[in-house]
Amino acid sequence: MLDFLDTPDRSAKPREEGITHALDDGVGVDEVRDRLEVCEEFVDIVKLGWGTGYVADRLEEKIALYQRRDIPVYFGGTLFEVTIRQGRFDAMVEELSELGVEHVEVSTGVIDLEHEEKCGYVDRLSEEFTVLSEVGRKDADEELTLEEWGGRAEREREAGAWKVIMEGRAGGDTGVYGDDGDVKAGLIEHTAERLGADSIVFEAPQTEQQAWFVERFGPEVNLGNVRLDDVIPLETLRRGLRGDTVETFHPETGVDRTEATTELAGIETDD
Amino acid sequence: MLDFLDTPDRSAKPREEGITHALDDGVGVDEVRDRLEVCEEFVDIVKLGWGTGYVADRLEEKIALYQRRDIPVYFGGTLFEVTIRQGRFDAMVEELSELGVEHVEVSTGVIDLEHEEKCGYVDRLSEEFTVLSEVGRKDADEELTLEEWGGRAEREREAGAWKVIMEGRAGGDTGVYGDDGDVKAGLIEHTAERLGADSIVFEAPQTEQQAWFVERFGPEVNLGNVRLDDVIPLETLRRGLRGDTVETFHPETGVDRTEATTELAGIETDD
Amino acid sequence: MLDFLDTPDRSAKPREEGITHALDDGVGVDEVRDRLEVCEEFVDIVKLGWGTGYVADRLEEKIALYQRRDIPVYFGGTLFEVTIRQGRFDAMVEELSELGVEHVEVSTGVIDLEHEEKCGYVDRLSEEFTVLSEVGRKDADEELTLEEWGGRAEREREAGAWKVIMEGRAGGDTGVYGDDGDVKAGLIEHTAERLGADSIVFEAPQTEQQAWFVERFGPEVNLGNVRLDDVIPLETLRRGLRGDTVETFHPETGVDRTEATTELAGIETDD
Description:
Chains A, B, C: One of its GO terms (molecular function) is phosphosulfolactate synthase activity. The structure is a homotrimer of 271-residue chains. With 271 residues, chain A is of the alpha/beta class.
């Protein structure tokens, strides 16, 4: 390992802050193993995106692989939503328990559910599972007001959610983002102020979005929907080792570089 | 495997409908094996994209890997087109036969060929191979009329094509799509009506495009140019297990959810 | 291997022209091995992008894997820039030497450095390493004039750079590209004329950009920031085996195709 630079401090696992919440969208089991061997230290929790865990083969093997490395793994909120739509809540709880899954996501990205009822599910599930509850709709047309986002997030935490996820979708084009992927800064600030940024996982699938959050909240911000491929690139953003955040973490100091690099003295340059 | 939800019926392999036609753009052989181990059941046929099969190493090994799993594999239409351009038709047929490849694509995405001549190749090749013939140009400026698309597709089927592919390119920005990736619905409807949707493979590389076809034609639509990475995500679309198609396959039923989830009764919610 | 087509000549490794400079952005070690097994012949040099090599595990293993296959590997310019910012030049040189890395990149994509000073680093490093120096800023707002690009590139070559890299970033949206990814042709022509195209590695992460350079400079153009996934697709562009460059390398010849494909004679077509 290289070790000649100063980089921002990062907490160690298991983390409550600085969480990288990764998205597994149905990749192969060997690929997961291979990826984790270079980035395991930076993966805090993994979501088997939407219903991919329901259809892909070798599910038990994949879950075991993550769990052997102490990385919790759970199913995307869409599975919960279809479950509710079909009235299969008990069956879901039973099968998840049998699989040994210890986390669950409660969301209303697509289905309509009274917020009170949603909080009921958070409460009920938090007796048995660690609950992540997601605020935000996948449909950009049905947006919540600032107050609604904040209030709902707060009540879901009170109902027992470990973290509140702020919706950004796998594509990063809805929820806390506009159609063009731009961050809705006012919404972020409002919610972070009410709950504390460490209670929130911000879904941020795109590099520019990740850079924005790292610049705003520092290296220990919780970021979600990060593809397994992007865990290492995100870690470089957190440490100021990618162009986007170099200036944030390694500001121009006014240090006399010539002094620090005396070996250059006396070398004739070309112009 | 999880098994607590109702999802739309899907046919079993070998399929004539509900085909997922996957694109291998030159990935490694181990990656293919690893991917197939989680999604083999949903991959019906694989195209080695354009000329990638001509330049990548370990070609025989890759073909054997697919064929051992009863997944037909063939070379992208660009290879056929360059062959015609260079007058090497006989040599192509000979080398493909030696490789044990049993499918071939006839296209005129780039080269100019009288349609009658194209149909001649379909006819000739269909004696020895299963032929996929592609309608559409890669160049967006040379678009065909509705009648031309439909008529040509029809004649290529009559000449012996197993399926007609409607061009969308790997990028999903031409053929049946506009520059912005939007679906040309009128063209699709017209051709599907004339040939029957089950005779057509619609190239649909992007998630939104796949969702559109699944909503329009149901879970058993034939979709092509699906990256190996996207086979599992597509399968979730076909089953209503991704946000985009939840509403299509699991509509709001008016069922009294409270009844179905009695365990929530009596739980005090937070507001 | 298939071998029935004429394709443009390509030089063999080790290459001085026709270089594919690949980007490893933190992928797993098995994935690297697997990819190289299908495209090793076409990978000339690999950059561990920006600071990914600093944070990912199994660094030594990955370096050994590339070097065993005679593929030089080095660290992205951002690492050099943070080093200079922190005044750790000597430490960097020492650690790189210990790792057995033989190439280094000098860039000023983010940091401010007098050009004379930059050339001093090129000169100093070229005593011990093979130096790639990069011209261009990551920040699109601080663009250089045509003369500045050309002049700087020239002086960096004189200072000892093996090749000059023209900045395009991993995203292909700055440096020699506009915000929309379009190529700045005037800039390219000017610099290529002054230095010779073979002294330059053009960063070209997107397919359309790669096709542009291959059409303009031929199959032996040096292209950089090519993802490992895209090495095979790029090779098809260089040989006219992808739609984008078929016309370039296999022009309509006026050859009588009917003669070359006599087996079609007598076949009744469908219209």
